[in-house]
Prior knowledge:
With 49 residues, the chain is mainly alpha-helical. The chain has one helix and no strands. The protein has one helix at 5-32. The longest helix has 28 residues, at 5-32.
Amino acid sequence: MFVTDSEFFLTLHRTHATDLRAEAARERLARTLPRRSARGWLTRRRVRG
Length: 49
């Protein structure tokens, strides 16, 4: 599969770097989205009488 140890480590490094970039992108996206509150104005119960 790998000819040399250096190819193996380079592949491992690239895979890890890709994972880190994907994780950073998810965290950036999570920070840009508004946080859900437990009860916002849309989720309040309506009293029907």
